[in-house]
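Dear support,

I submitted the protein below through the web form. The confirmation email said the job was done, but the results page showed an empty box. After a refresh the structure appeared. I'm attaching both so you can tell me whether what I see now is the final result or a partial one.
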Amino acid sequence: MNSWQYEPVADLDQPLVERLRRFPREPDITIYALRSLAALAARAWLRVYHRFEIIGAENLPKEGSFIMVANHASHLDAICLLSALPLRKLHRAFPAAAQDYFFVSVPRLAVAAVVVNALPFARKTHIRQSLEICRQLLANPGNILIIFPEGTRSATGEIGAFKGGISLLVAGTSIPVVPCFLEGTFAAWPKGKRFPRPRRLRLHIGKPRAYPTHPTNKESSEHISIDLHQAVLDLMP
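What the results page shows now:
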């Protein structure tokens, strides 16, 4: 019989801020508990304050890894998408968040890492490295990646063009991509406003699509980006 041996987590000797900044983060039961409590509070707040409604939840894959893509107009967007997932999947869902915005100041870092479980994504440099981290996540069955392909929040509420990063992740693979449309988040909490307003929110979830026959080239990348952009637009009421 093999003797049991205790091995501490790799980042145990690091300060809490550094542990939150690194990715992938080591499992932490305290962080998991705080995230679960925050999720329950957020879901109750969305239901009461914003009369949040989810349409098409049956389209979310029940097994395996997948990607959710959506329009992006508010800090409420990631919270709404996470609220569509079962609580048991909360710690394996990773919204891609701008590394140069959410992982700099301590308050934003705390929200991004603890509450949202965000993946730090480099928007200006080391983009390929960020994409490789996303690929590794998706290679592990059961992980969920949340991406806003516009790259930043809309300043007008209109849906901008989708960037090609999502295409590089899914071209030539069978990874399901679930298009989503967030309705009302811009009116509730637009860019530049300090606090959210009591506006009705709806999340429309479309049927998954995949691109196993698409090669990883520029033409294919443009086609996938346009196709997903249209899939999100088609969900608008």
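Response: this is the final, complete result; the empty box was a page-load delay. The domain at 28-234 is CATH 3.40.1130.10 (Glycerol-3-phosphate (1)-acyltransferase).
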